[in-house]
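> forwarded from #structure-qc
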C-alpha cells in the first residue's frame, strides 16, 4: 500500500514537472553560466577522477523557498575531472541537485547519478545549461529543453538527491563523445565522486547510489554498471536502471538510418573521429560534400533541430559510393574493432539491473537489448528484463522508443526505491 501511495506521488510530480517544461519561458540572464565556466584549465592539475575543478550556483528558473531549502532543489553547476576512453584525464561538467524534500527511507539520503538521453552535440545542449532554461528557442529551428526534468523531479520529490553529468565535450571543448562506452561510463561514475565531495550538501560521502539512464543514457548507465567494480569500487552502488540501451552500435546504426533520428549518426561519427583520429581519413574519403556538410552542421545542433533538419534522410545520400554508412564502415577493420569495443555485455554488473525496452522500438532494436540481458545473465548478474509491448506506431518516428520511458516510470522508480530499501531483488535470468 505504501509503495502504491509513493508511486502515485511520483506520477503526480512527473506530471507537474512535464507541464512546467512544456509551458516554460526562455532563460533569464541571471541564470546563465559565468563567463569561462566551461573552459577547463590547461593543463589539468594532476588529481584523481572525481576531483572538483570549479563550482558555481545554478539557479533553476522556478524555485520556491522553504524552511528545508529551495523547492524542488538547490542546484550547483560544477566541473570535475574524469577519464576519457583511452585513460587520459579530461574535464567534464555537470549539475548536482540537493532536494528540499526529506528522505523518508532507511539509512542516509541516497543519490541518483542520472545519465541523460540524447541532448545533441552543440555546447548549448549541455544539461547543466538547459536546467536553468527549461525551454529555449533560437531562430529558426534550435528548440531545446531538458526532457529529463520530469524524471529528475520525481526523484527530488522523494528526497533523493540527483547528479547529472554533461558527458565529455558537451559544453566543454571538443566534440561530445556520443555513445562512447568508456567515456560515458567514466563520466557517470565520476559525477558521483564529485557530488559526494561537494561541501554543505544533504548527502554523505560513501552514501548509497543508484544509476539511471534511458537511450543514450541507458547505454551510459549500463557502461557505468559494468565499469563500477574496476573503475570506482569504493562507490556504494545499489542498482542500475538501464532503459533501451544501444548495446550494439553497429546494429543500431543500421536501424536508425532513415528514421527521424538519422542525424544522430553524425554525432557518433564526429565523436568517434575525435576519440580515434585514425578513422578521420576513412570518413573524409568516404563521405561526399553533402555528408561533410551534415557532419559539420550537426556538430553544433541540439537533437530537436537535428531531427527537424535531417530526419528521415538516408545515409546513402551522404556517401560517395551511394551505399549506407553501415555498409561502408563495416569494410574497415579498424572501424569494426572500435565498434566491437563499444559493445555492452562482456562485463557483468555486480549490482542488480532493471532493463526496460519496447518490443517494437524503432530506434534501439529490442533484440539487441535482450541479447545484452542474456549475456549479463550468463555471467551470473542479477537482471530484470521488462518489455513494453506497445504495438508499432508510425515506425521511424521514435514513438515506440520514447513512450516506454514514460510508461515505465512507475516500475523504474519502484525498482530504485527497492534497491535503496535493500528489498529482495527480482531476476528474470
Amino acid at each position: 500500500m505504501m509503495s502504491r501511495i509513493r508511486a502515485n506521488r511520483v506520477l503526480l510530480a512527473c506530471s507537474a514537472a512535464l507541464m512546467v517544461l512544456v509551458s516554460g519561458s526562455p532563460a533569464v540572464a541571471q541564470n546563465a553560466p559565468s563567463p569561462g565556466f566551461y573552459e577547463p584549465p590547461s593543463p589539468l592539475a594532476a588529481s584523481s577522477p572525481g576531483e572538483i575543478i570549479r563550482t558555481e550556483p545554478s539557479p533553476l528558473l522556478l524555485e520556491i523557498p522553504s524552511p528545508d531549502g529551495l523547492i524542488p532543489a538547490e542546484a550547483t553547476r560544477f566541473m570535475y575531472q574524469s577519464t576519457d576512453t583511452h585513460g587520459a584525464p579530461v574535464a567534464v561538467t555537470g549539475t548536482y541537485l540537493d532536494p528540499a524534500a526529506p528522505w523518508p527511507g532507511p539509512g542516509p539520503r541516497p543519490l541518483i547519478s542520472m545519465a541523460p538521453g540524447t541532448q545533441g552535440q552543440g555546447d548549448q545542449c549541455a544539461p547543466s545549461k538547459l536546467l536553468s532554461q527549461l525551454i529555449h528557442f533560437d531562430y529558426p529551428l534550435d528548440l531545446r529543453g531538458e526532457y529529463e526534468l520530469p524524471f529528475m523531479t520525481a526523484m527530488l520529490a522523494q528526497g533523493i538527491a540527483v547528479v547529472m553529468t554533461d558527458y565529455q565535450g558537451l559544453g566543454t571543448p571538443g566534440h561530445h563523445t556520443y555513445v562512447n562506452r568508456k567515456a560515458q561510463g567514466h563520466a557517470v561514475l565520476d559525477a558521483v565522486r564529485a557530488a559526494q565531495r561537494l561541501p554543505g550538501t544533504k548527502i554523505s560521502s560513501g552514501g548509497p547510489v543508484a544509476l539511471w539512464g534511458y537511450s543514450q543514457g541507458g547505454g551510459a548507465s549500463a557502461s557505468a554498471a559494468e565499469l563500477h567494480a574496476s573503475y570506482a569500487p569504493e562507490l556504494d552502488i545499489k542498482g542500475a536502471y538501464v532503459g533501451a540501451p544501444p548495446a550494439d552500435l553497429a546494429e543500431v546504426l543500421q536501424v536508425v538510418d532513415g528514421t527521424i533520428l538519422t542525424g544522430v549518426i553524425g554525432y557518433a561519427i564526429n565523436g568517434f573521429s575525435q576519440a580515434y583520429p585514425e578513422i578521420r581519413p576513412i570518413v573524409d574519403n568516404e563521405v561526399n560534400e553533402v555528408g561533410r556538410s551534415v557532419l559539420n552542421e550537426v556538430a553544433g545542433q541540439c537533437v530537436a533541430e537535428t531531427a527537424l533538419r535531417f530526419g528521415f534522410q538516408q545515409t546513402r545520400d551522404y556517401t560517395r559510393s551511394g551505399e549506407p554508412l553501415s555498409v561502408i564502415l563495416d569494410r574497415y577493420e579498424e572501424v569494426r574493432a572500435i565498434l566491437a569495443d563499444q559493445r555492452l555485455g562482456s562485463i557483468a554488473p555486480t549490482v542488480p539491473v532493471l532493463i526496460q525496452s519496447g518490443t517494437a522500438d524503432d530506434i534501439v532494436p529490442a533484440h539487441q537489448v535482450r541479447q545484452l540481458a542474456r549475456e549479463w545473465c550468463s555471467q551470473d548478474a542479477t537482471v530484470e528484463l521488462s518489455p513494453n509491448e506497445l504495438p508499432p506506431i508510425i515506425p521511424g518516428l521514435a514513438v515506440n522508443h520514447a513512450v516506454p520511458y514514460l510508461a515505465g516510470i512507475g516500475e523504474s522508480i519502484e525498482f530504485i526505491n527497492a534497491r535503496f530499501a535493500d528489498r529482495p531483488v527480482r531476476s528474470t535470468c
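QC bot note: Residues 51-248+345-421 form a domain with the Rossmann fold fold (CATH 3.40.50.1820). The first helix runs from residue 2 to 23.
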